[in-house]
TrEMBL record:
<comment type="similarity">
    <text>Belongs to the nitronate monooxygenase family. NMO class I subfamily.</text>
</comment>
<keyword id="KW-0288">FMN</keyword>
<keyword id="KW-0216">Detoxification</keyword>
<dbReference type="GO" id="GO:0004497">
    <property type="term" value="F:monooxygenase activity"/>
</dbReference>
<keyword id="KW-0285">Flavoprotein</keyword>
<keyword id="KW-0560">Oxidoreductase</keyword>
<protein>
    <recommendedName>
        <fullName>Propionate 3-nitronate monooxygenase</fullName>
    </recommendedName>
</protein>
<dbReference type="Pfam" id="PF03060">
    <property type="entry name" value="NMO"/>
</dbReference>
<dbReference type="InterPro" id="IPR013785">
    <property type="entry name" value="Aldolase_TIM"/>
</dbReference>
<dbReference type="InterPro" id="IPR004136">
    <property type="entry name" value="NMO"/>
</dbReference>
<keyword id="KW-0503">Monooxygenase</keyword>
């Protein structure tokens, strides 16, 4: 199939990074550098997403938006126990009760469909075929984030046009469809090789140097998606404390469920150590830890906020995003 990704002058995408780092300015900078990028719809209101889509769409022909696929609504006893533990540890904060929340799924799908966003990617699963068909009718290229060959097959059966193959070094949340299973540790290049030819492939996870990018392309990726390497870019909306800790380079990264109930890779801190046994339970744990994270951000306290980062975060350098991407991926022809 032909996809708009083939038309890119530089085969590189600014990854969707929900919670602040992704901004319209970051996406525009990636587009101006000859690549493209994703707005991160996760946690945004549908109205705010629509504004960002309009802002980027004014100038960019090819750009994307990334949505979180909703989870089951069941609130398990372990989640309620985690709530009680947090409330006891933080008596001054209003730790909420867990409640069903689909992150404005239908409204956001409608925003991207109506605006004709050219690239629509999903994480935390893949939507049913009818939602995919609706996006196809609106002209979208539909991209599935996958972490295993089985997830890739399941997304392709439901109409995915492109696979975004995410390897274990990736910063932020793993896209693993089933949140109760451990994210796979299969190296990115092995996964890429096993999926070669199945669909056009975008590779993600640990692509912070030209050599890593070249290896991913050698293993079958048509395009690479870069997250961590852009976290300290001028146009990124990364929280200042998070940015400082990335540049200091002193912390290890680890996978944790402590903040959101879904596995995600970030800079190790006290909260992650204290809650190393946190249960699965996205989006509920994300709701529960909201006040703790917000208070830490306000206080500039790195020990109780989520600071997502990929394994290779020490390669990230500040500067204009366009220059960062140009360094990673040379232009076609
Ligand atoms: C701060 C942060 C937020 C992220 N948020 C999202 C998101 O909203 N949606 C998504 O599909 N992936 C998200 N990711 C994962 C990226 O899309 C991508 O898979 C990852 O950054 C690639 O690995 P790298 O960080 O080593 O470049 C996020 C990553 C980071 C670092």
């Amino acid at each position: 199939m032909t996809s708009p990704l083939e038309a890119l002058r530089r085969p590189v995408l600014a990854a969707p990074m929900a919670g602040g780092p992704s901004t319209p300015a970051l996406v525009r900078a990636a587009v101006e550098a000859g690549g493209s990028g994703f707005l991160a719809a996760g946690y945004l209101s549908a109205e705010r997403l629509a504004e960002q889509v309009t802002e980027v769409g004014r100038d960019a022909e090819i750009f994307g938006a990334n949505l979180f696929v909703p989870e089951a609504d069941e609130i398990r006893p372990e989640v309620r126990a985690y709530r009680d533990r947090l409330a006891a540890a933080h008596p001054a904060l209003a730790v909420p009760d867990p409640h069903p929340d689909d992150d404005g799924w239908q409204e956001k799908l409608e925003v991207v469909r109506e605006a004709g966003v050219p690239l629509v990617s999903f994480t935390f699963g893949f939507p049913p075929a009818d939602a995919v068909h609706t996006l196809h009718r609106a002209g979208a290229t539909v991209i599935a984030t996958v972490t295993t060959a089985a997830e890739a097959r399941s997304a392709l059966e439901r109409g995915a046009d492109v696979l975004c193959v995410q390897g274990p070094a990736a910063g932020g949340h793993r896209g693993t469809f089933d949140q109760t299973v451990e994210p796979p540790a299969e190296p990115l290049e092995d996964l890429l090789r096993s999926l070669r030819g199945a669909a056009p492939i975008v590779a993600a996870g640990g692509l912070t140097t030209p050599a890593a990018v070249a290896a991913a392309r050698e293993a079958g990726a048509a395009v690479v998606q870069v997250g961590t390497a852009l976290l300290v870019a001028d146009e990124a909306g990364t929280d200042p404390t998070h940015r400082r800790e990335l540049l200091a380079g002193q912390r290890e990264t680890t996978l944790t469920r402590a903040f959101s109930g879904r596995w995600a890779r970030g800079l190790l801190n006290e909260f992650m150590t204290t809650h190393a046994d946190a249960p699965a339970g996205y989006p509920f744990l994300n709701q529960l830890t909201g006040p703790v994270r917000a208070a830490a951000r306000r206080a500039g306290d790195p020990e109780a906020m989520s600071m997502w980062a990929g394994e290779r975060y020490r390669d990230a350098r500040p500067g204009p995003a366009g220059e960062i991407l140009e360094r990673l991926v040379r232009s076609h022809g």
